[in-house]
């Protein structure tokens, strides 16, 4: 587990209704439990707290420990700097307790002369995951003070030794770290305390994942993604248009490559059209279309492209030679189903529904969520790419992990929502996201846009309604 993942989990946990108060309560209780299990009860405990949430965990631990131990809390810093609601809440509780002693140490001069000889255990809740740079005063002096008692008292750090990874850091007997043992940490003993995240968080896509995927990269036109969409035929022009419309809210530039016959029917000024001659894509268009991919960050191929033999051949040849990250959707999937080897060495997302999945891989996804996810993961591994199986729960895998998405509603069975989804995924790929993240977050945003439409119109709407709610979905995520 990486520190970036912790942020995603916290955000998704909040989305499930698990509040930061609950997490802090569990974190502090976990610290208290670890101490009592290791060292027994009836202890004299000093708890050094900073003004961030690491300190907040310390406040909670103090309350839990106070039941059977003699506890003194040293707040290092000014109490008006206790900012988060959950830390403040727990601080206010502590101030009402008569059996917990509180000492406020606003500057280093108050720390230097402290004598901590009477304490059996010193808890270090000064700095945690929010540490930026070398520890500054008065925290720095507090770290040094604690280290004077190394080997004399037991020193327990909350989450990580304060100051880590700087030179000035607490030398603890162990740290109580939360939920998982974090890969990045080294050089100190760790005990893991679970803080109430459900298993769903390993797999469920939520606003935490989406926030990361939507981060802007630059201030200049084109820096935030250029997407090329290849689709349309004699019979269809709406499908590539819907994909382009949805994507245009996310990336800077969307180029729509279509046979001129269908391109003529598009009048939307948001679109940059790149018509190619004729009514349908054929091998003859190959060089021209490949040249267009050069200035794109990602490519979508398939929406409304049709199933003519010469078009299917075009799709396969194109995929084989395209060097950009790809989303292959709809008729494009049927074209490559005839020869999956065109995917070798490519970076791509396939977006089949159950029927297309069977056409591609000869097996129908059936059974429980876990069983279906197992099959999607197996096939993703075989083709060395990302598969998004569309359904009531969308399942996404890169062959190593699997994710699922629950946003969306029955109204989205209407034609064209798959094109909107492909457009969003392509846009997220063009922003530089991994195929796994682009596909997972694409499914989430598409469903969220659909749910936003449902709030206004009920379950009878069209795919264009969904595409037009993409900016609302994005705004919701960024403000969450
Ligand atoms: N999901 C979880 O794992 C949970 C973790 N919890 C605990 O929360 C902390 C992280 O809290 P946060 O408020 O983000 O940061 P800190 O408390 O680590 O520090 C912020 C605080 O410190 C000041 N500061 C930053 N760098 C320095 C420095 N170099 N010198 C001095 N002061 C510094 C900054 O200005 C802030 O005031 C995590 O570690 C867990 O303990 C939650 O309680 C439960 C969920
Ligand atoms: K700490």
From TrEMBL:
Q: Where in the numbering of this chain does the YjeF N-terminal domain appear? A: 6-203
Q: Which residues form a coiled coil?
A: none
What cofactors does the UniProt entry give for this protein? K(+); Mg(2+)
Q: Which residues bind AMP?
A: 418
A Gene Ontology biological process term: nicotinamide nucleotide metabolic process
EC number(s) given by UniProt: 4.2.1.136, 5.1.99.6
Q: What positions does the entry give for K(+) binding?
A: 54, 124, 162
Q: Where does (6S)-NADPHX bind?
A: 53-57, 128-134, 159, 239, 304, 353, 419
YjeF C-terminal domain spans which residues? 204-477
Oligomeric state and interaction partners are given as: Homotetramer.
Q: What family name appears in the similarity comment?
A: In the C-terminal section; belongs to the NnrD/CARKD family. Belongs to the NnrE/AIBP family.
Q: What is this protein called?
A: Bifunctional NAD(P)H-hydrate repair enzyme
């Amino acid at each position: 587990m990486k520190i970036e993942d912790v942020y995603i989990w916290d955000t998704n946990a909040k989305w499930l209704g698990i509040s930061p108060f609950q997490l802090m309560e569990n974190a502090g209780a976990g610290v208290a439990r670890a101490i009592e299990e290791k060292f027994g009860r009836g202890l004299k405990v000093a708890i050094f707290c900073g003004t961030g949430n690491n300190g907040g965990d310390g406040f909670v631990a103090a309350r839990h420990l106070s039941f059977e131990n003699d506890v003194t809390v040293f707040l290092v810093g000014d109490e008006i700097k206790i900012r988060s609601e959950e830390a403040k809440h727990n601080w206010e509780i502590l101030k009402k307790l008569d059996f917990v002693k509180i000492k406020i140490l606003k500057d280093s001069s108050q720390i230097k002369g402290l004598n901590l000889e009477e304490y059996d255990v010193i808890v270090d809740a000064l700095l945690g995951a929010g540490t930026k740079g070398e520890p500054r005063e008065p925290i720095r002096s507090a770290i040094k003070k604690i280290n004077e008692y190394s080997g004399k008292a037991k020193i327990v750090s909350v989450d990580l030794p304060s100051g880590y990874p700087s030179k000035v850091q607490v030398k603890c007997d162990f740290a109580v770290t939360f939920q998982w043992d974090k890969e990045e940490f080294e050089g100190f003993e760790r005990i893991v305390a679970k803080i109430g995240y459900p298993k769903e968080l390993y797999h469920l896509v939520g606003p935490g994942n989406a926030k990361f995927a939507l981060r802007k990269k630059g201030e200049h036109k084109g820096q935030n993604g250029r997407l090329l969409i290849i689709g349309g035929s004699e019979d269809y022009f709406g499908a590539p248009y819907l994909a382009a419309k949805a994507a245009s809210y996310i990336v800077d530039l969307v180029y729509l490559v279509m046979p001129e016959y269908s391109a003529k029917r598009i009048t939307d000024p948001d679109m940059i059209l790149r018509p190619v001659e004729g009514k349908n894509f054929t091998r003859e268009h190959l060089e021209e279309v490949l040249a267009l991919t050069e200035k794109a960050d990602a490519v979508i191929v398939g929406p409304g492209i049709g199933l003519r033999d010469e078009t299917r051949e075009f799709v396969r040849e194109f995929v084989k030679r395209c060097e950009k990250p790809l989303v292959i959707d709809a008729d494009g999937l049927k074209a490559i189903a005839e020869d999956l080897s065109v995917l070798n060495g490519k970076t791509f997302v396939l977006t089949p529904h159950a029927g297309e999945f069977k056409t591609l891989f000869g097996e129908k996804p059936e059974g429980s969520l876990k069983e279906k996810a197992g099959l999607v993961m197996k096939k993703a591994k075989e083709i060395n790419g990302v598969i998004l199986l569309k359904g009531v729960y969308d399942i996404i895998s890169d062959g190593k992990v699997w994710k699922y998405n629950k946003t969306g509603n029955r109204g989205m069975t209407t034609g064209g929502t798959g094109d909107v989804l492909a457009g969003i995924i392509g846009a997220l790929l063009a922003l530089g996201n991994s195929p796994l993240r682009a596909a997972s977050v694409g499914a989430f945003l598409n469903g969220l846009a659909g749910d936003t439409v449902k709030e206004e119109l009920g379950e009878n709407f069209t795919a264009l309604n969904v595409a037009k709610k993409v900016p609302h979905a994005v705004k919701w995520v960024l403000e969450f």
